[in-house]
């Protein structure tokens, strides 16, 4: 009986935590990130501000939890797109992942802005264990796993190490050590160059920084993907091309 009461309390707590995070998301989408305060979220779920502290230690912890939710949702969308063409070429998988990222971002601009349109702090011992950081790492690994697999089977063109500025080499060495991946820093440099192009364009689209020139950025995004494929030595495939079922 005691175990049943404990399980019931655990379920109720999980349900309340999920309700709080959902309320925070609703406030974000409808009113913007400044509206996501402890007191506002508490009102949404019908409790007092002090009562909410029984579930989250403060605003920062609530932000961590909501950000983790967004990352997990985005990663699931990207992995589903990747798995739908798992038997196909690395180019197809990378393109599918990239298009899934854009699809999620334009469908959820407030959530995308919450996650990505703010500075990402440098990792330290505390941040490395945070749910937000771990979820962000999982997001990063979706791309990196494909890049690593591509490098192992069909290495793409990279600059010589001595062609990179000393500061870039130093920073890439530190970042590569964090990744713990079988990629030389020159390959990591190409990966980051591709990511900067992809992410930069996506941010400009979601944040409406190109509305002065474009009303439809999908073909511009596809041009970006074509350029990235060229950088990685891959064949570009249009979005509407059928996916091969052959292994």
Describe what this molecule looks like in 3D.
This protein has 247 residues and is mainly alpha-helical. It is built from ten helices and no strands. The chain has helices at 2-31, 38-44, 49-52, 59-84, 90-107, 109-116, 131-153, 166-179, 185-206, 218-231. Helix 1 packs across helix 4. The relative contact order is 0.10.
* pLDDT < 50 runs, ≥5 residues: none
Order of helices and strands: HHHHHHHHHH
Biggest sheet layout: none
Distance between the termini: 53 Å
Query: Based on CA inertia axes, which overall geometry fits?
Result: globular
| Helix count, DSSP H or I runs of 4 or more residues | 10
CATH superfamily heading of the largest domain: Tetracycline Repressor, domain 2
Strand content: under 5%
Instruction: Tally the beta strands.
Output: 0
CATH architecture of the largest domain: Orthogonal Bundle
Q: Mean pLDDT, rounded to whole units?
A: 89
Instruction: Give the CATH level 1 class of the largest domain.
Output: Mainly Alpha
Domains, number: 2
CATH topology of the largest domain: Tetracycline Repressor, domain 2
By secondary-structure content and strand pairing, the structural class works out as: mainly alpha
Percent of residues in helices: 55-70%
The value of Rg in angstroms is 21 Å
């Amino acid at each position: 009986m005691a175990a049943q009461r404990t399980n019931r309390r655990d379920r109720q707590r999980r349900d309340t935590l999920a309700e709080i995070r959902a309320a925070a998301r609703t406030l974000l989408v409808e009113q913007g990130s400044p509206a996501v305060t402890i007191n506002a979220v508490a009102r949404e779920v019908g409790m007092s501000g002090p009562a909410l502290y029984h579930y989250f230690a403060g605003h920062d912890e609530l932000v961590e939890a909501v950000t983790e939710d967004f990352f997990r949702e985005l990663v699931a969308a990207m992995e589903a797109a990747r798995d739908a063409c798992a038997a196909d070429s690395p180019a197809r998988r990378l393109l599918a992942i990239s298009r899934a990222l854009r699809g999620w971002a334009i469908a959820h601009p407030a959530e995308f802005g919450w996650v990505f349109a703010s500075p990402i702090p440098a990792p330290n011992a505390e941040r490395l264990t945070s749910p937000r950081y771990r979820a962000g790492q999982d997001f990063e690994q979706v791309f990196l796993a494909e890049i690593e697999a591509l490098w192992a089977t069909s290495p793409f063109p990279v600059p010589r190490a001595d062609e990179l500025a000393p500061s870039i080499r130093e920073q890439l060495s530190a970042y590569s050590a964090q990744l713990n991946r079988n990629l030389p820093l020159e390959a990591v440099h190409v990966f980051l160059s591709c990511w900067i192009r992809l992410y930069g364009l996506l941010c400009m689209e979601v944040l409406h920084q190109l509305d002065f020139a474009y009303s439809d950025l999908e073909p511009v995004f596809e041009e970006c993907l074509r350029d990235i494929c060229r950088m990685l030595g891959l064949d570009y495939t249009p979005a509407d091309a059928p996916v091969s079922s052959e292994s």
